[in-house]
TrEMBL record:
It comes from Celeribacter ethanolicus. Pfam families: FMN_red. PANTHER family: CHROMATE REDUCTASE, NAD(P)H-DEPENDENT FMN REDUCTASE LOT6. GO terms for cellular component: cytosol. It comes from the Bacteria. GO terms for molecular function: FMN binding; oxidoreductase activity. Residues 2-148 form the NADPH-dependent FMN reductase-like domain. This is ACP phosphodiesterase.
Length: 182
């Protein structure tokens, strides 16, 4: 069994991206289990707070990432880049200096958007810090999910043709990526 920390870039309760993340966990191979890791309660990273008694949410977050075999990011695009909540989470997990929780964790990136571009900007901006954090990020297949507002029915089931099959095959590829890197 591999344990995957799942980080969702939208913090709102009725997030379409959260629905997508939930759908992905249902389409994943049985060998994967998922922990939705909260990032909305992390104070902005500030070295002044990173003492022997950092904010409790930072410690909780760092421990949850440490416990994971891999990290799956499912995120919308904000202003052609990644949401600040994801970037802040990356910064919080990267410190204290020399004690980053990210190194070596195989990453998967799924971006989503109501438009046809599918969060391309967020997807590729997110890849930049992952290089420095030494996280092997799966390159192929890429996942840019467009048409986000019409993807689900009332029960959260995917209704657009072909999307479910694509996401299932993407999760199978990510499962293999994680196994190859742990
Ligand atoms: C957006 N949205 C957006 N969409 C996109 O495709 N490219 C973009 O650059 C942006 N920029 C952007 C900035 C900000 C601050 C917000 C709040 C939104 C729209 C976004 O994709 C849309 O709101 C999604 O539905 C967000 O996902 P959730 O919250 O439904 O998961």
């Amino acid at each position: 069994m591999t344990r995957i920390a799942l980080l969702v870039g939208s913090l709102r309760k009725d997030s379409q991206t959260l629905k997508l993340a939930k759908a992905l966990t249902k389409l994943a191979p049985e060998s994967m289990e998922f922990d939705f890791v909260e990032i909305g309660d992390l104070p902005f990273f500030n070295e002044d707070l990173d003492t022997d008694t950092p904010p409790a949410s930072w410690t909780r977050f760092r421990n949850e990432i440490k416990a994971a075999d891999g990290v799956l990011f499912v995120t919308p695009e904000y202003n052609r880049s990644l949401p600040a909540a994801i970037k802040n989470a990356l910064d919080v997990g990267s410190r204290p200096y020399g004690a980053s929780v990210w190194g070596g964790k195989p990453a998967g990136i799924v971006t989503a958007s109501p438009s046809g571009i599918g969060g391309f900007g967020a997807n590729h901006h997110l890849r930049q810090p992952l290089v420095f954090l030494d996280m092997p990020a799966m390159q192929q297949p890429e996942a840019y999910i467009g048409n986000l507002w019409n993807l689900f029915d009332e029960e959260g089931k995917i209704v657009t043709e072909g999307t479910e099959d694509f996401l299932k095959s993407w999760m199978e590829a990510y499962a293999a990526w994680v196994k190859a890197h742990i």
